[in-house]
Amino acid sequence: MLDYVDKGADRPGAGQCIEKFYSLTLKTFQATNNDRLWLKTSIKLAKLMLDRKDYTGVAKKLREIQQKSTKDGTDDPSKGTYALELCALEIQMHAELKNDKQLKRLYQRALTIKSAVPHPNIMGVIRECGGKMHMSEENWIEAQSDFFESFRNYDEAGSLQRIQVLKYLILSTMLMKSDISPFDSQETKPYKTDPRITAMTELVDAFQRDDVRAYEDVLQRNQDLLADPFIAENIDEVTRNMRTKGLVKLVAPYSRMRLDWIARHLRLPIAEACNILGYLISDGRLQGKIDEREGTLNMASDPDLARVQAISDMAVQVRSMAETLLHNAPGFKAIELYPPEQDSTLHGAGFAHGGKRKAKGMVDSMWM
């Protein structure tokens, strides 16, 4: 009955009626001391409030559930599944409120709960929120891992949310600048031709081919992609990476180009094209200079770069040779032919001090 009532929750004026229905149900369960049914119904009510974005009501209901699902202030192992569902709801709430600190704490706590046998849909929710959290931290690798796990769980549960999470997985793959197709895995391969994700498939294909024009065309034809706030928030970073790669590929064959020509090929304003060029030059990925007065980009030619590099290498080698000759060669060291401890032996053999000096003079003359 509760499931049937939930289906009409989006109708105008249905909210108060449904909450009254839930309240009567919960009151009945309390009278019969049926904790499990009370917990299940309370969690469903909290989900309903979350869908309505009644965050105050959700927080209040979650506190009530928390008191019921704990034992002496700690989690009751017999109610681990309910604790995980509760954690998933709280994670969703903090994710929507952009409360990253609380979200991270709850996400890590949810992964440590071992006494639960959760429904795959619950783990899908937790992993999806974790992926979004990692994306906000620009931790693309962890985000991709979480989105993949979320997709697997949603797929196992038969949830329609798997399609949306698959889009997030493709988005994180592009942000990682990976050349590996997200459809190479056994789980995602059946969805490669799904018409619901055709736009994202074309985007990642253009991105991996460095085809700026194809990428821009896909975005222009599929403006509905930006209806998802999460995709709209992160697609700009993908677009910037795409334009950066496209610009490097565009200028590679030339030594001098007009800025308006570059902007026209990238379909950008000249000011934005100059910003990308400035970033690439300062980052060392392009060797050139922007002449704003002439409106040109002048690249350092390869022969000049090779000559400069050769001169630099020769200077290093000359310096190394000089250090070897002047500091390490034996011809420039003070040599003592007869150490002091051998003096007594030489005197005993009738070799006078004058003979020792003469011998040293002979050695010096040989070096000269």
Description:
By secondary structure, the chain is mostly helical. Among the domains are: 1-118; 257-327, Arc Repressor Mutant, subunit A (Orthogonal Bundle). It has 17 helices and 5 strands. Helix 3 (35-51) runs parallel beside helix 5 (80-96), helix 7 (120-136) runs antiparallel to helix 8 and helix 9 runs parallel beside helix 12. The longest helix is centred in the C-terminal third of the chain and has 27 residues, at 302-328. Mean pLDDT is 79; it is low at 342-368.
- Tell me about the biggest sheet? 3 strands, antiparallel
Gap between N and C termini, in Å? 111 Å
Instruction: Label the structural class.
Output: mainly alpha
**In what order do the strands lie side by side in the largest sheet?**
3-5-4
Strand element count: 5
Instruction: Write the H/E string, N to C.
Output: HHHHEEHHHHHHHHEHHEEHHH
Strand content: under 5%
Query: Count of DSSP helices?
Result: 17
Please give the share of residues in helix: 55-70%
For this entry, give a set of tags:
368 residues; mainly alpha; Arc Repressor Mutant, subunit A; two-stranded antiparallel sheet; 17 helices; disordered C terminus
